[in-house]
Design brief:
mainly alpha; globular
Length: about 160
């Protein structure tokens, strides 16, 4: 898209891999197109939690995302004789690795796409911000503000 003179903003998870990929894009690719406005954004920095790992899934509260993971994998849980409540989180940090660990503990593999489809379906029904899970609107505002700022002030 940059080659077509389009302004591009790329979003990256704020984990080690996301930071490596962001740096690689910013230093090895975007520098080739200095004439075209482009930027990279780390999710954590955009929402004000730059000191920790932060991923797209962390826009939602842990209990909300856990419920969507349970709901989207209810048949898998039932097939091994488990209830949805048998899937629980431990520790702290980004939700995704904690969910994956919870599934591993039960001998199941987590498919984040299945949970994402449920969340998307629910978000499409949302008509007012107060219907969003607690804290999500504030994080989303910060994220969109960072994106908007990137479009107005290129960071090459």
């Amino acid at each position: 898209m940059i080659g077509q003179d389009l302004h591009v903003v790329a979003l990256f998870d704020s984990d080690d891999e996301g930071r490596r990929q962001e740096e690689k894009l910013r230093t090895k690719w975007l520098t080739r197109y200095k004439q075209t406005p482009s930027a990279t954004i780390l999710f954590g920095e955009a929402v004000g939690v730059s000191k920790q790992n932060f991923m797209l899934e962390d826009l939602f509260p842990d209990d909300y995302y856990l419920e969507k993971a349970r709901e989207s994998h209810s048949q898998k849980l039932t097939s091994i004789g488990k209830q949805k409540t048998d899937l629980s989180l431990s520790g702290s940090g980004p939700i995704l690795p904690r969910i994956e660990q919870a599934f591993d503990n039960l001998g199941l593999q987590f498919n984040k796409g299945s949970a994402a489809k449920l969340i998307r379906k629910e978000l499409l029904k949302t008509t007012i911000l107060s219907d969003l899970p607690k804290g999500t609107a504030d994080k989303a505002r910060k994220l969109f503000s960072a994106i908007q700022k990137s479009f107005s002030t290129p960071e090459n």
